[in-house]
Amino acid sequence: MQQSYNSTLLDNAVAQLSRLPGIGGKTALRLALHLLRQEEEAAVSLGQSLIDLRRNVHYCKRCHNISETEICDICSSARRDPTSICVVESVKDVLTIEATHEFHGLYHVLGGVISPLEGISPSDLEIESLVARVADEEVREVILALSPTIEGDTTNYYIFKRLAPYDINVSIPARGLSIGNELEFTDELTLGRSIINRIPFSDTFTAGH
Amino acid sequence: MQQSYNSTLLDNAVAQLSRLPGIGGKTALRLALHLLRQEEEAAVSLGQSLIDLRRNVHYCKRCHNISETEICDICSSARRDPTSICVVESVKDVLTIEATHEFHGLYHVLGGVISPLEGISPSDLEIESLVARVADEEVREVILALSPTIEGDTTNYYIFKRLAPYDINVSIPARGLSIGNELEFTDELTLGRSIINRIPFSDTFTAGH
Fold first, then answer.
1. Distance between CA B129 and CA B59 in Å, rounded?
2. What is the CA angle A78-A82-A88, rounded to 5?
3. Which residues are registered as beta bridge partners of B84?
4. Assembly ipTM
5. CA trace torsion A44, A57, A98, A92 (10° rounding)
6. Hey, are the CB atoms on B16 and A45 less than 8 Å from each other?
7. Which of A18-22, A28-32, A83-87, B197-201 has the lowest mean pLDDT?
8. Residue B86, beta-bridge partner list
9. pTM of the model
10. For B51, which of A5, A48, A98 is closest by C-beta distance?
11. Model confidence at A2, in pLDDT bands (50, 70, 90)?
12. What element of type H or E holds B99?
């Protein structure tokens, strides 16, 4: 995608934008021409915000979530329950779970899931650091909130085995029907399992469903 | 879209990215998290290229195409024919026509087309400066290469009337079947007109079709 637009600055901006995931050459050109039509301040704010983001946002040494400080706000909050750790694949999943307002413990970001096909082995993930936390901190519960896929289940099982020596509860989020979705649009596997794992209706009165 | 991601720097980058056309909050977050995973150099190059683009790319005073200098490379080239001006809607159209390598004259970028519905009147466009060029320069031909839409045709007609006092040829690009497209997928209007305006087959041997 090294087309020439009669301006090396435009060529460069388009080349840089094209490197972003999901942004092809045509979109990159459209974005660059859009910026040219804006006030100078708009392009400077955007450019500077991306530089500042990468320069000053780091990863929490404890849970590997993004953080502007050595230990992130969640890990250092006195209002979070340090006995409960929710294990997630990525930083994005922390944001997704935080948005539910239903989890009040700490996180541990793995950085992916075990995937032999993609060459991702346990040593590429933050699994040893999770085991170390369970060994050293006052952890009583680990929730494995990975994707319900083969890779996620493999990773769940691997972590479960690694944590077996410790006296803690290891759980996964419930799997079943999506609330608000029509039954007929639920896939067969999920529907079948949700029937096997059916719950007493009276439980739904108390559990905040 | 002023969600909080536990980092004001991330919030800010996402907010800035979301202002780009076609980029919503979710895509902006995905792009920001992608940049966080790259080398610092990648984010700095991208950010700086956008700042440099807006700061140093300007518009040619003669044809209003983008230019890093007062007069653009096309206008100042001795190899272009200054007697032929191709009128286009936008900077992007200059790039599109240049890519065909079939036009060797100069351009004139209008900055849009006349559109009463969108409140764009002739005075919002670079029409007076086009008339001035025809009056002052050695122009013999003006090609109106606007979109074949109602707005484009309205603008063509307006410009045609404004240029009537001058002894020049005013043309539009041929309209007809798209080369390489199946006949059955051509819209009826285009197909009908292309039959009315049919060309002798023998002409196609010489005209470089």
1. 14
2. 115
3. B141
4. 0.73
5. 80
6. yes
7. B197-201
8. B107, B143
9. 0.72
10. A48
11. very low
12. helix B91-100
**Contact flag B47-A46 (C-beta cutoff 8 Å):** yes
DSSP H helices, A60-149, are: 73-76, 91-100, 127-136
First to last CA, chain B: 51
Question: What is the spatial distance between Cα A89 and Cα A41, in angstroms, rounded to a whole number?
Answer: 37
Q: What six digits make up the tokens of A8?
A: 């090396």
Instruction: Give the residue ranges of DSSP H helices in A24-146.
Output: 25-37, 40-56, 73-76, 91-100, 127-136
A146: buried, middle or exposed (CB in 10 Å: 19+, 13-18, 0-12)?
buried
* Phi, psi (deg, nearest 5) at residue A84: -120, 125
Q: How far is A194 from chain B (nearest CA, A)?
A: 30
CA A19 to chain centre: 22
- Contact assessment for residue A130 and residue A110, using Cβ atoms and an 8 Å cutoff: yes
Directed axis angle between helix B8-18 and helix A40-56, to 10°? 140
Sign of CA dihedral A99, A179, A90, A105: positive
Pairwise CB contact (< 8 Å): A36 & B48 = no
Instruction: Please list the residues that pair with B66 across neighbouring strands.
Output: B59
Q: Which domains does chain A have, with CATH numbers?
A: 8-56 (1.10.8.420), 80-171 (3.40.1360.10), 175-209 (no CATH)
With helix as H, strand as E and coil as C, how does B114-180 read?
A: CEHHHCECHHHCCHHHHHHHHHHCCCCEEEECCCCCHHHHHHHHHHHHHCCCCCCEEECCCCCCCCC
Q: Residue written as tokens 């029409």?
A: B127
Which of A51-65, A133-147, A160-174, A185-199 is predicted least confidently? A185-199
Nearest CA in chain A to B13: A49
